[in-house]
Design a protein that fits this description.
Layout (H helix, E strand, L loop, with lengths): L3 H20 L4 E2 H8 L3 H13 L5 E9 L2 E8 L12 H12 L9 H6 L1
Antiparallel strand pairs: 1-3, 2-3
Amino acid sequence: MMNKTHRNTEIGKQNRALMLMALESGPMSTEQLAELTGTPKDQVTRHISILRLSGPKQVYIANFVRTRGKGTPVYALGNKPDAKFELGGKASRLEKAIADNAAVIPTTPQPWYAALL
């Protein structure tokens, strides 16, 4: 007779196999994987984490799509580096302003700064 932990491990392996098969058709978000596999979204997130972080990486973040003001990762099969989430709107303008002013900021300590030390 199979104990509960062993049964859950087997179900988890089956769910991860379903997700890998679904991703063979192309990149998908967590919501799309949940809908396609019939697995709750929180479990899809857990299984994707396992596929990305345990052993050889099998799934990576291909890109992000904007949903409700935040970025939703889109997963794909493979062992590539994850895409970086880039903010749009005001945050990117702020980052640009900081980068533009980086050349103006002196890199050597100023006399007034030495007084603080």
